[in-house]
Specification:
alpha+beta; two-stranded antiparallel ribbon; 2 helices; 27% strand
Length: 182
């Protein structure tokens, strides 16, 4: 890496439109003692072009995977936030019926009922379980074509939780087939 700093371009090099004063522009110049940036011949790109035709296909697949990964992370973030709110009793479980498969939905509904029963008990902190949840981070990894596994870190009033999710794509729709809330 080279260290650069910005300096004004000389007024003689600035161009202006008719009747307008020249715009003040800056150019990046290497700092004193820093190595000069690499120079490329005129008409060539600053980055080398791939020589292998398969590189373009590989780069396209990497771009598609990166886009899918961002989409999976966004879906995971929203679904985990909603699932924790279901456990807190602030969101109806029916809102997750399109995203979760039937087994995950039944499991989440059962856990929400148990949490409500625990909150009604004598423990003073049990009523604050799952309150004010916030998803701090989400990571996703493709395990097979159309199948991702993701993890999320959720912070609520009492503790930090880990959530594991498995997403599978069917008919161009992502469905959560496994949801484990720590």
């Amino acid at each position: 890496m080279t260290a650069l700093h910005l300096v004004p371009i000389s007024p003689a090099l600035e161009r202006s439109e008719a009747g307008n004063p020249p715009a003040r522009r800056l150019v990046a110049v290497p700092e004193a003692g820093a190595p000069a940036p690499r120079q490329y011949p005129a008409g060539t790109a600053a980055t080398p072009r791939p020589g292998n035709p398969g590189d373009a296909a590989r780069n396209g697949r990497l771009l598609q995977t990166a886009t899918e990964n961002r989409e999976v992370c966004a879906i995971t973030r929203g679904t985990v936030q909603a699932a924790i709110e279901v456990l807190a009793g602030t969101r109806p479980i029916q809102q997750l019926s399109r995203r979760l498969d039937q087994r995950c939905l039944a499991s989440l509904q059962h856990r929400a009922a148990l949490t409500r029963r625990l909150a009604a008990g004598p423990s003073p902190t049990a009523g604050r379980l799952h309150r004010n949840p916030a998803v701090r981070s989400v990571r996703a990894c493709e395990v097979a074509s159309g199948i991702y596994e993701a993890s999320a870190v959720v912070v609520d009033e009492l503790r930090v939780r880990a959530v594991a999710v498995r997403l599978e794509r069917s008919n161009q729709v992502w469905r959560i087939t496994a949801l484990e809330i720590g």
